[in-house]
Amino acid sequence: MANLRYYIAIALGLVITLMYWFKEDADVHYERPVQEVAAVEKGKTLALNGRGSIMACTSCHGQNGEGMANYPRIAGLNAAYIKKQLEDFARDLPDIGVVLERVSKDYEKTPRDYKDLTVYTPGVRHDDLMSPMAKAMTKEDIKNLSAYYSTQAFSSTPKAVDHLTLERGEELAVRGKPEYMVPRCEACHGPKGEGFRELFPPLAGQPVEYIIDQINRWQRGDRDNDNLSLMKNVANMMTDADKINVARYYSNMSYSINEEN
Ligand code: HEC
Ligand code: HEC
After folding, report:
1. Rounded to the nearest 5°, which phi and psi values hold at 23?
2. Does the reported pTM lie above 0.70?
3. What is the pLDDT of residue 57?
4. Are strands 223-224 and 124-125 parallel, antiparallel or unpaired?
5. Beta-ladder partners of 154
6. Which residue has the higher pLDDT, 179 or 7?
7. How is domain 2-24+31-255 classified at the CATH fold level?
8. How far is the CA of 210 from the centre of ligand 1 (A)?
9. Does the C-beta of 9 come closer than 6 Å to ligand 2?
10. Whose CA is nearest to atom 26 of ligand 1?
């Protein structure tokens, strides 16, 4: 069963990647200029000042969208990824008439027994802070905010961190645990943790707390918005130690985007 899931994840990742490579042509001719500039400006105004129940994004995500602790960096993320996340935050859990009990799982060791509780929702990502604000946004707001943050610069530089932790994190990132069918993070998130288009978000430079928190949310079922459950299946195989090691590794990577602007 775990075998099958592993190969499906790898095969689907490959298919999606190829699909988007071939779509590239269309994107090359995508016209950005005039409207984009206006969208960036409007997005900036909303990001800095907020409006009504929408708080200024800068108050949690930092003055330049650089993030901190549980607040992710959003500067330089792919525009379509930002848009998708905001739409997913805004979506209500489908009312299916039954209350699902949380299944408690033990994440201490790698080969673990768990029953997969996949609920095929249209992609829900609930957060007490983000969801109400995302609900209050118009389509226009979402477009503008995505335009603004995707063009913002971001860079991160390595800090002094315990090298053993980093090495263990790197091991998981570049090799995975093939003996337990855990894929390497690089396969989807890129060799430098830089991400791939709107499909796979960057991990490089994201705060340690945020990375751990997201994996916990997948394990608990609070985040259930990844295409084909690609990330959920990986998250479900990670131990508590894996989360800490890999989060420190990615958080500590050198990375920069949009710097020349
Ligand atoms: C009160 C604090 C707060 C404010 C204000 C806030 N955010 Fe967030 N944001 C969060 C938290 C916390 C998360 C992580 C949620 C989770 O764990 O799923 C988040 C996540 C996000 C993400 C997902 C990033 C990713 O890597 O998946 C995006 C995009 C985002 N916020 C955009 C915005 C925008 C745009 C604004 C301004 C309109 C904003 N946020 C204002 C707290 C905030
Ligand atoms: C098979 C592909 C695949 C592999 C392998 C994979 N991921 Fe992911 N990951 C995804 C997808 C898809 C998303 C979510 C995209 C979305 O929400 O639309 C994601 C999102 C994430 C996020 C949330 C980022 C954010 O900005 O909110 C974290 C953290 C993460 N992955 C960590 C990891 C780690 C650590 C590993 C290695 C142990 C890993 N991933 C391996 C596909 C993958």
Report:
1. -75, -15
2. yes
3. 98
4. antiparallel
5. 257
6. 179
7. Cytochrome Bc1 Complex; Chain D, domain 2 (1.10.760)
8. 11
9. yes
10. 72
With 0-12 / 13-18 / 19 or more C-beta atoms within 10 angstroms meaning exposed / middle / buried, residue 153 is middle
Maximum alpha-carbon separation in the chain: 54
CA distance linking residue 133 with residue 166, whole number of Å:
36
> Closest ligand 1 atom to the C-alpha of 206?
26
Q: How far apart are CA 97 and CA 93, in angstroms?
A: 11
DSSP assignment letter at 111:
S
Model confidence pLDDT, tens digit, residues 185-195: 999 999 999 99
User: In this structure, what token pair is assigned to residue 251?
Assistant: 């958080």
Using the Cα atoms of residue 73, residue 13, residue 115 and residue 107 in order, give the sign of their dihedral: negative
Between CA 112 and CA 121, with CA 118 as vertex, the angle to 5 degrees is 155
> If you compute the radius of gyration of the chain from its CA atoms, what whole number of angstroms results?
19
Of ligand 1's listed atoms, the one at least distance from the Cα of 141 is 38
Domain range list for the chain: 2-24+31-255
The whole-number pLDDT of residue 159 equals: 83
63-93: per-residue pLDDT in tens?
A: 999 999 999 999 999 999 999 999 999 988 7
Using the mean position of ligand 2's atoms as its centre, give its distance from the Cα of residue 134 in Å: 22
